[in-house]
Amino acid sequence: MKHGSFAIIGMSLLIWVMAACTPGFFEGTSTTPLEQVVKGPLATVPDKAPVPADNPMTPAKVELGKMLYFEPRLSESGIISCHTCHNLSLGGTDRIPTSLGHDFQTGGRNAPTVLNAAFFNLQFWDGRAASLEEQAEGPIQAGVEMAMPKELAVEVIKGIKGYSPYFQAAFPGEEDPITFENIVKAIAAFERTLITPNDPLDQYLRGDENAISAQAIEGMDVFRLKGCMRCHKGAMLSTGELTKFEHGQDLGAFKVTGDPEDKMVFRVPTLRNLPLTAPYLHDGSAATIEEAIHIMAEVQVDKEINLAEEAAIVAFLESTVGDQPKIVIPILPAD
Amino acid sequence: MKHGSFAIIGMSLLIWVMAACTPGFFEGTSTTPLEQVVKGPLATVPDKAPVPADNPMTPAKVELGKMLYFEPRLSESGIISCHTCHNLSLGGTDRIPTSLGHDFQTGGRNAPTVLNAAFFNLQFWDGRAASLEEQAEGPIQAGVEMAMPKELAVEVIKGIKGYSPYFQAAFPGEEDPITFENIVKAIAAFERTLITPNDPLDQYLRGDENAISAQAIEGMDVFRLKGCMRCHKGAMLSTGELTKFEHGQDLGAFKVTGDPEDKMVFRVPTLRNLPLTAPYLHDGSAATIEEAIHIMAEVQVDKEINLAEEAAIVAFLESTVGDQPKIVIPILPAD
Question: Does residue B107 contact residue B101 with C-beta atoms inside 8 Å?
Fold first, then answer.
């Protein structure tokens, strides 16, 4: 069993080393490496995120994006920022079932982690945004989140004179750089730095056989053999694609498209940093990894999973906590 | 005029250099240097805060305190931490008139800055806490703030197993170190690092005549001659003491003591980092430094202040933004 799994891992490692050598994979310049990232069963987290051609990353833009990510004045109340629900102290989430936003209203879904979100094309649980830029437009304006109309967001940021040099540096040559489009571009550029390479699983995939426990290696095998890797594969342990998941009441992508085919269709979430991002599932209904495994086993792969198998899968999934981004809190301009 | 003010500043500098040479002043080991800090008209911000004998600072305790300062699970909702209202991106405040807390309830007073709070003995606008430790007990439990009973706070932190080694390191030798007392001790130890030395005013007080503008120097004179320095003096530009301030409806310290003498009595706030901490006054009713000056001139010193004088005082007070603490966001234990 164990030798067999090593051979399979060896093979996939080889495939992945080859994929990793494709130009553009590690340089963070290719726009759509997702095809590469999700091929094959498992892959290491790249040390750079892909960067879209229309929003190149510069240190000035990343710095501005960090400021805006932490900017509570982008909310109607003045106290909610991107960081409130995508808290970098807490694995890029808020660790509550569904987020609390403006007026303490609850959102309908569990806040997905911002960590490694840069490796996905589709954003949000229902995949309704096609980029980080498009994603960032949503929560700022959503009435139950930051509740700030985009015209007002621009007005507020323009009203804080201290932002002007930062926008000029981030978007050089633009006559009127403080726009909603540039606000979300800067936030997305910062988010592309929020990646967590080098977790024990990746160390193992790179050849350090002692990086994860024998139980975790066994769990990887169970995870594959039960069919979990049909969706949870690649560097993100996710295809990043939309899949039917008939759990709870939420109609998923159907609410966006109105297409009956999209009922209860959700984007496959990443399992990287899983121990940091409880509770789980789109509705936050699974408090622990164990509960999530049970629900997935029943609803999604229709397989029995015994206690030893469950413990092994948990050990495997606990090997996904990578190097967390080291973020110095930005000092925001006063006025 | 200007020569006169230089002579006065020179005198006070000399007094302060002498005060600063008192043993214990800069070492951060003395328990009550406040008497020194508030003597004389002006003084530079010490580069270390005083440390009480019963809560010595260690790197392990400061690190734990930073974690707890950023810990939203210390609130009933799971999304409010000390940092929500005492935001280090925003001068240690929330920049709204009165804070929003649990269930978006509004507190009655403007959040005082945490920056340099370590130099005060009395904490809160009404001075009801005698130390940072005592202060930290309040907002965690207050129903309109974090709304977390202290027994539950301890239970929550104990439930997060990853905290255990941090408490052991911060409180070595204690059999059961996760207590509410130790939670607030650690937070207070972290807060003693949140000091902002070296602002332009201090550079000027140390002898760099070009560190602040001629207008700011003039403003310092106006500020003194109008009587503002009766309360706003010393390193904090505050005596740190309680003073009658008959503005608004809030009865101040009376609400704590019931003593008619304490009606509308408030602690004199620091003016350090003033440009970062708008809006002003205990009720946040002054949106700008100019508005605050007008109210203080009328209510407190009963003096006319013309536009040139006001502009000069503003220039003086704008020289109070010191080096902001460089804080790397803590990664909090998952469970």
Answer: yes
Q: Is A145 noted as a catalytic residue in this protein?
A: yes
Please report, for residues A146, A203, B117, B176, the alpha-carbon distance to residue A75 in angstroms, rounded to integers and kept in the order given: 4, 40, 27, 41
Hey, which residues does A123 pair with through a beta bridge? A129
Cβ distance B91 to A335 less than 8 Å, yes or no, reads no
Q: What is the pLDDT along chain A (335 residues), one digit of tens a residue?
A: 344 444 444 444 444 444 433 333 333 333 333 333 333 489 999 999 999 999 999 999 999 999 999 999 999 999 999 999 999 999 999 999 999 999 999 988 999 999 999 999 999 999 999 999 999 999 999 999 999 999 999 999 999 999 999 999 999 999 999 999 999 999 999 999 999 999 999 999 998 989 999 999 999 999 999 999 999 999 999 999 999 999 999 999 999 999 999 999 999 999 999 999 999 999 999 999 999 999 999 999 999 999 999 999 999 999 999 999 999 999 999 98
Using CB atoms, pick whichever of A91, A104, A334 lies closest to residue B104: A104
Q: Are B100 and A101 in contact (CB under 8 A)?
A: no
- Cα A285 to Cα B323: distance, rounded to the nearest angstrom: 45
Cβ <8 Å between A329 and B331: no
Task: Name the nearest CA neighbour of A80 among A138, A148, A131.
Answer: A148
ipTM of the prediction: 0.87
For chain B, how big is the Rg over CA atoms in Å? 20
CA–CA distance, A314 with A60 (Å, rounded to integer): 40
Pick from A326, A190, A101, A228: which is nearest to B100 by CA? A101
Size of interface A-B (CB pairs under 8 A): 87
Q: What is the DSSP string of A21-85?
A: TSTTTTTS--S-THHHHHSSSB-PPPSS----TTS---HHHHHHHHHHHT-GGGSSSSS--HHHH
Distance CA B310, CA B297 (A): 10
Q: Tokens at residue A136, please?
A: 């960032």
Q: Which residues of A touch B280 (CB under 8 A)?
A: none
To the nearest whole Å, the CA of B5 is away from the closest chain A CA by 30
Catalytic residue, from B71, B133, B137, B145: name it: B145
Nearest Cα of chain B lies from the Cα of A115 at a distance, in angstroms, of 13
